[in-house]
Write a structure and sequence with these properties.
Blueprint (H helix, E strand, L loop, with lengths): L9 H14 L13 H9 L18 H13 L6 H13 L11 E3 L7 E5 L2 E10 L6 E5 L11 E4 L5 E6 L5 E11 L1 E3 L5 H33 L1 E2 L2 E2 L4 H25 L8 H26 L10 H12 L5 H14 L3 H6 L11
Parallel strand pairs: 1-4
Antiparallel strand pairs: 2-3, 3-7, 4-5, 5-8, 6-7, 9-10
Helix pairs in contact: 1-3, 3-5, 3-6, 5-6, 5-7, 5-8, 6-7, 7-8, 7-9
Length: 359
């Protein structure tokens, strides 16, 4: 049984699977979570950080399904590079009417955090941006002002980390996150009509695509392991309890992949508020099942640093909190349900409501 399905991004997946497999092989012996300039150059030369964005705005072209296919590969191989963050930043740049940067001028994104706060006056910013992924490596950090307490009219804020006080630590996956402190720091402001909600929805979709790939990777790795690991004179894949874990893994991986690819087919996914929130919440729940089943099927070896399973499961735990935890998303569902004409209208009606929102 295969965890792969046919999808509109399959051509991209077929073309790039060899690149991802060769660059980040399963038996990678050196430190896999170190930012390597040669790998980043290869990624940017292929246009992977701007795929899904129009060429006239500096993008590599392609569809949202193509972007999802790339991010699924990145998740499947636990790629230790900010492909998703750079793509989100490029999307925010294009939505602000500017040409997306890549190569040496790439940007990362500041995800909305409760502790974030920014005050901007006369081009000078004071405040904090917390837990910025790869904020110590990126030449620029982009923040949507309305998502970081700077006011709805703040627009897109471009921050130079070299002008900030930067404190770096590792996230749950062992990758760098930076705390940026701004004290009358010069920043650039771009006008944009993008709302904090639209930005969050895009982030949910991107994160769910990464999670889909990591679940597929965990399922494939577990299936391979239980076929070769023997106990009592036969492969442990012959034991019913182990088979249950494998089936659960494949089910969760295929379900998440199918949902991500369906949402990516929508012309304007940010209009599908209920669909994307359901996708992220389901991905969060499925990730919990996958990590548990994968580690139970592997036993002790799955907990070792030398074995690659933790590189997938730690990322899944990390991404469960990105752009919406289970509790936050459940609360958002409740708010949407409370304001909808009916539950059926909320779930089935894609026509714009009186306030211009999808109900």
């Amino acid at each position: 049984m295969s965890t792969h399905t046919s999808d509109p991004g399959s051509e991209i997946e077929a073309a790039l699977s060899g690149f991802f497999r060769d660059t980040w092989p399963d038996d990678m012996s050196d430190d896999p979570d170190v930012f390597r300039d040669d790998q980043w150059s290869a990624v940017t030369e292929l246009g992977l950080t701007t795929i899904g964005l129009p060429e006239h705005l500096g993008g590599a072209g392609g569809s949202l399904s193509d972007l999802v296919a790339v991010l699924q590969l990145a998740g499947r191989h636990a790629v230790p590079l900010p492909i998703a963050e750079a793509n989100l930043a490029a999307w925010l740049t294009s939505r602000s009417g500017h040409t997306a940067g890549s190569g040496p001028m790439w940007s990362t994104i500041a995800r909305p955090e409760r502790r974030d706060h920014l005050t901007i006056r006369d081009g000078l910013a004071t405040g904090e941006l917390c837990d910025v992924p790869w904020g110590n490596e990126a030449p620029q950090v982009l923040a949507l002002g309305s998502a970081h307490g700077a006011g709805a009219a703040a627009g897109t804020i471009v921050v130079d980390p070299d002008r900030c006080t930067v404190t770096v630590r590792e996230d749950l996956a062992g990758q760098p996150i930076a705390h940026l402190t701004l004290d009358d720091t010069p920043v650039t402001r771009w006008d944009t009509d993008l709302t904090a909600d639209e930005f969050a929805l895009r982030g949910m979709l991107v994160t769910a695509a990464l999670m889909s790939g990591a679940m597929t990777g965990a399922a494939d790795l577990t299936r391979e392991y239980v076929e070769v690991r023997e106990q009592f004179g036969r492969p442990i894949s012959k034991f019913q309890a182990v088979q249950h874990h494998v089936v659960e893994l494949v089910q969760m991986a295929v379900m998440t992949r199918s949902m991500v690819e369906r949402v990516a087919l929508v012309a304007d996914p940010t209009a599908q508020q209920i669909d994307i929130r359901a996708l992220k919440l389901t991905s969060n729940e499925n990730a919990a099942h996958v990590t548990r089943a994968a580690h139970q099927a592997h036993g002790a070896i799955g907990m070792t640093r030398e074995y690659r399973l933790h590189r997938l499961t730690r990322r899944l735990h990390l991404w469960r909190d990105a752009f919406g935890t289970d509790l936050e998303l459940a609360g958002q569902f409740g708010e949407l349900a409370a304001t909808a004409p009916s539950l059926a209208a909320l779930l089935l009606d894609d026509t714009p409501g009186p306030a211009g929102e999808t109900v």
